[in-house]
Write a structure and sequence with these properties.
60s Ribosomal Protein L30, Chain: A; two-stranded antiparallel ribbon; 180 residues; 5 helices
Length: 180
Amino acid sequence: MRRNLITGILVLVCSFSLIFVAGCAKDQVVKDDAGLTQAQPSAEEAAALKKQALKEKALKEKMLAEAAAFQDIHFSFDRYDLKPEARALLEELAGWLSEHGDFEATVEGHCDNRGTAVYNLALGERRAEAAKAYLVNLGVARTRITTISYGEELPADPRDCEEAWTKNRRDHFIIFPKKQ
């Protein structure tokens, strides 16, 4: 009986000791979404991680601002071949995309409002695909570029005059970070 009492007291003391030691540990163990355990960072490490994340976010925002500066390219009436000015702008864009491999692009093809809606959608697609083909030819991976045609649906200038039609016959570029 006395031996059982001593063993019980010893087990109780060891249990409290383990609980005390586990509670005083500097790094707490937590489970992440996948159910894996990992050490919780200290306050200094967490602050450094937050600062690094803010720097990365600011850098991405700066890069997106640079990318937004790329101008639209324009086309002649009822054409989808690239003018020399368009090729120069696409070369700049290809260079930027090559330097920033963690970004992708969407090429939007647009038309003026002359012609049928179906015809303009097809023409807008040919314009977007022409720009994509040129970028791929310059070394940008085909998988980083998507195309879409809006035809006459999203005019840059809604007026019905030659000046407006000239503005509306364009490819517009949307640059965005790759999905992780």
